[in-house]
């Protein structure tokens, strides 16, 4: 066991991280600094401060930050520019939050002179990897403590026994095992484990917390517009909004119309398959709107290159490599393409569906004059197509002659 | 103008290809063989025979083939195995039909000793490319006649004048210009041009022909199952169906629930952007179901490689390179991955949405024993994750040390 | 034939472009502006001016530019950062020069108010595409005249007859057909056609002009060093040199030691295979030296991403898409990786071979402390490898269990 | 420590694996089965049998197999079809041998009823990963013992002490530390560590064992031919040879002419950079010859797709994922392309260099008729290029109009 003097713990104030707080002090005999971030998970942060104080954390060792704007502007939006989908479907809501938490922990560690950081992610999941790759990338010499991989509290019963033995208050609803495990931030809420573990069984309705059931959504569609500038959304229904406010607004719209539920069996970086339920109401709207504005503002070459790079980019984020040279290289390529991705998208929200119904842009590359079925006044010479096809066919003809 | 003796024309029986039939004979003084395919476009084929006879085509020169099963089994299904989406959204319904028509024309040309083939696609679109790359790949020495690129009938008015001057019956509804242009087969119906040419304007409701408006779809969701074997769908709701019958069944379900409408601005191979409306009811269900069955039966390495190859594969089909070595190479890779893609997917259809709610397989790679949040009895050793992370982080740490 | 008032011709002063000059005036009855670039092809430029004057071009319509530094700094070096090789072997010496010539022609056209540009590339090759894609990208409305695709001078005999009929001096050695066709600039000399057209026949020795035969090279190896900064070479043997001077120095070294000959059958963008002989003496050394300095300064993630992107990047340059969004996106990614690609590479030149024998860098990521076979004092914990392997193996084990 | 009854050890007969043999018995109190493979490493195998007997291994537990033909036919050749180069330069000579050894160990384990396998690779290298991923893929339930990660013999001194204490003969030259570490098989010899650990220092001449120094190679070039069939080499200088004999023949030629030396700093899968020296005499010739025969027999679409897939394919082999679905998928794609890769390549070997000087094939796609600078009698219509360029330029022109 390595020697640790001061550790910065990602602390939610809940039972698990409270037990970790205690266990760190007991096990490492070290000072614990707590860090609690507001990423839009929808919980009050002050109770976390009170709990930390009650646990004996010194006031100057309690850090509570509102990271919502940074989260959306510097993490969610760059990822949205890429149209990233993990395994074709997942909008990466958990993955994209971890690097920011890791970065802030390392910054606090530098500030308070801590030599270690710690998190509450288990040894089976992806989050441990995302946290720790972030830690190591930003401070190669930091010590990392992952209690779930180290301690012997291998069941919830033992965790609660430990809590009771150490005067850690155990909320009533934690006595029985929770029926599933969740993570939440401004982009999404995820649920996995337990009642969700059989991928043949439908997800029970009580698992959802961020969206109404599409069947209960309004019977009347709602039409909205989103404005974009340089690839980022800047306004909803004509109202300019900060990144976090904008995503919150779309979340409200998405919640109402039952948008963004995803039942997925995915491949974890650690090598197993898991089944999760994701709710990404605003993000789902944003993703489709971004694709729509790109349709008229992005050149084909740029668009197709982006499509080919996107699976790799998504994989990097999922696997925890946000702070890696290759993610940054891909980001540089993607961002280069977004200079003129600007304009307005019109969407219809209805019963769980997001339907793009119109898009316009001052930078549109769509040319009605060229594409028209009507007389195009010479904008396009149809005879050019003959040569185009002949030369595209040439290698196939040479091949055909050989292989007949 | 090259010397042509006998030409095989892709003939629908409609006004345009009837004018082409006449024009070919007049211009090239050649014998015309008509080929009409049933690809599930939902039109009677016998009228095409009658029209061809009326136009003076010899009975032995009239070919009418039901290609529905071949179309689905050998073109749609292989493409579905790839999860191919052009520009992230489009299921390639038009693109995938052209190679089969081209192949059949070349076969008929060989049979009847024709030295040329002809089609009715315009000089602005992708279809001319798809037809002609197919022709040339399968018979490098065939002559290709693309009337729309050659003749001077550059407006509908002139086309109708030509028809009337040559005793070709002009249907009443063709007198006025059609408000949009369509293509249909068992996989989809596309609509483009004219009233759709402003991508900011919502597609009028009368454009849709294959699906009800989601707002008019039943208020009660419908649960269905699809069974897969070796990557292909084989049964709906437990009933084994041939490929074409299965797709037809899914089309019925999709139509009822308003599934598979897509409003897209896409990049054509010939270099311009165009706006299209696609209806792919059954294909949309199939696409999502196939992804779902892959989720539990495909290894991560195979799945991610497929995701990286899919945009290129889709582009090849869109651009008309079905009969190319590179499409075949990608198909070989994709097909290799599908041996165990088998099992059953449960889906909920509701108001335009397709929601996967369950999947199971005799070949499932999902292991509840390994993934469980409960005690896993040693199936997974959480301490392994420490070394896994440490070595994945090593290069990032060396980098961090250098760059600080 | 479109109406042309003033045309900027890429003019070498040789027979072909002199005939073109005359033909342009005769055919289009337009003013001709000549542009002659020094790209390091090793020819005097003043004779081109004299010839243009003799042909009646007004002095103010004669442009002669030394573009060597711009060529190497802004075209060759960015490409070298990518380690670009077309079809695994070719250093793209011709391809990379065309965009610069095109750009300069468009700039001159803007300056002199010309409405057209023209070049001397034939209708079978890649260069016409590279020139014209450059023209159109930089000025979408420019008129392009490609005489070889338009005129009826389809043989050298007819070209010479035309020249004689128009008082254009025909050099003695042009009377007989040249035994092969060449292109040259500071990066390379290419030779193709005629005596080279049978790919089974060895290239005759008289084809080579830029390198000695390896068999005639010195019997003693020469050791050199190249210094890099931000991915670009900045010094040879410790002497700081401008980009063009540096490449010239490496060309001298390469020439002496018979380095950089390549006999290649390649795939042209227009669809046919052609056989070419390339001499890229300095570029070959530079390419290998750049790879060597990247070996110690580039992170694995960045290096492997670059390797995967390089074939596409090379294809874009070969096909003439230098001024395309997708090439620029890839360049942004590549350039992002080069910030710390700095240091010194030691190479041995011998009888046609370039052998990297050492590399060092202030930004080296190579850690003898970590890699050593000796006791590493805890820099690396071998037990970490157990977990690393176990989790990398997990999916393969689950697969193996299923498939046994 | 897990319970082990019988273990199959990859046994060379050298000091290290002899110590491992002893240590396994002592530590696990288990029966040890030795497996020694002839992969063309150029050592006698019978001494290994004698040593195993002397160490007390039962005769029926000693397995010695000549795997040379299987190695070349089923591992080296498939990899050569891909033109695989790790990090642009390395022919993967060590990586490609490990899966075969692993496969044979698992087969022997099944035969003798062993529950474990073991190897002598250290905890810092790639080979442990390659062995163990192979083991686990082929038998997910096998136990794996990696002594170098488990024991406390952390220096050579302690290893020798252990050997002496256990009556294991220590060769004289092992008393002092070897100046570098090697691996050899029919494809290559690698050397790394110790005197090679400073990547700025030239590799000393005594490190090389498979090739003469190019400076000592014959002053006269040697011309050879290699025949290919379905992508594999089948004859040298017209003489048909089995895969292993053919590679051995090319090794002799390469040795004589000093071909295939590579000084590389590479990125290991475990996260560090290492410097190695590789000698791949025959493989280097084969690699270039294969590219040359592909030049005239492979279509551009197939060739470029191969070039884009090759880095990933090489990475998979390097990282030990030979027995993975994604490597097999890529192999399926690659093999699909090789049906007509047949013909003869002529090469000149001289002073370390391999120069392709000619290639011919009954399946050549090279068409002198089409490519010729002379009159091509209509094989290619240069005017087609105009339309080809116009449509390739269309999107760039629309972009240019927008962005000016």
From TrEMBL, chains A, B, C, D:
L-citrulline binds at residues 90, 95, 126, 130, 181, 190, 266, 278. Residues 180-397 form the Arginosuccinate synthase C-terminal domain. The keyword Nucleotide-binding applies. CDD domains: ASS. It catalyses: L-citrulline + L-aspartate + ATP = 2-(N(omega)-L-arginino)succinate + AMP + diphosphate + H(+). Signal peptide: none annotated. It is found in: Cytoplasm. Residues 6-169 form the Arginosuccinate synthase-like N-terminal domain. Pfam families: Arginosuc_syn_C (PF20979), Arginosuc_synth (PF00764). One of its GO terms (molecular function) is argininosuccinate synthase activity. Its main location: cytoplasm. Belongs to the argininosuccinate synthase family. Type 1 subfamily. Homotetramer. This is Argininosuccinate synthase.
């Amino acid at each position: 066991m390595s020697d640790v003097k001061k550790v910065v713990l990602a602390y939610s104030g809940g039972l698990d991280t409270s037990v970790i707080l205690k266990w760190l002090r007991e096990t490492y005999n070290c000072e614990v600094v707590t860090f609690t971030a507001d990423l839009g998970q929808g919980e009050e942060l002050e109770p976390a401060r009170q709990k930390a104080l009650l646990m004996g954390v010194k006031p100057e060792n309690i850090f509570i930050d509102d990271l919502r704007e940074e989260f959306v502007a510097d993490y969610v939006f760059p990822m949205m520019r890429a149209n990233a989908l993990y395994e074709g479907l997942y909008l990466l809501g958990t993955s994209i939050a971890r690097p920011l938490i890791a970065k802030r922990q390392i910054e606090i560690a530098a500030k308070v002179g801590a030599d270690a950081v710690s998190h509450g992610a288990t040894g089976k999941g992806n989050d441990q990897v995302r946290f720790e790759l972030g830690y190591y990338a930003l401070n190669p010499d930091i010590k990392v403590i992952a209690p779930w991989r180290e301690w012997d509290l291998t069941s919830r019963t033992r965790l609660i026994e430990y809590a009771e033995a150490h005067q850690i208050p155990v909320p009533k609803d934690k006595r029985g095992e929770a029926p599933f495990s969740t993570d939440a931030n401004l982009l999404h809420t995820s649920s996995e484990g337990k009642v969700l573990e059989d991928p043949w069984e439908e997800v029970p309705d009580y698992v959802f917390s961020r969206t109404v059931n599409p069947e209960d959504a309004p019977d009347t569609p709602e039409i909205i517009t989103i404005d974009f500038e340089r690839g980022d959304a800047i306004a909803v229904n004509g109202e300019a909004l900060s990144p976090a406010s904008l995503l919150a607004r779309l979340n409200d719209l998405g919640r109402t119309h039952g948008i963004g539920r995803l039942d997925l069996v995915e491949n974890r970086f650690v090598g197993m398959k898991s089944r999760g339920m994701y709710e990404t109401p605003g993000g789902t709207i944003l993703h489709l709107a971004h694709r729509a504005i790109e349709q008229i503002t992005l050149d084909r070459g740029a668009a197709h290159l982006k499509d080919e790079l996107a699976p790799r980019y998504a994989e990097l984020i999922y696997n925890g490599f946000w702070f890696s040279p290759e993610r940054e290289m891909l980001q540089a390529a993607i961002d280069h393409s977004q200079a003129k991705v600007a304009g307005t998208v019109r969407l219809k929200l209805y019963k769980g569906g997001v339907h793009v119904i119109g898009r316009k842009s001052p930078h549109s590359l769509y040319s009605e004059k060229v594409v028209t079925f009507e007389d195009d006044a010479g904008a396009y010479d149809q005879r050019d197509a003959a040569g185009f096809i002949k030369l595209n066919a040439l290698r196939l003809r040479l091949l055909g002659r050989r292989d007949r």
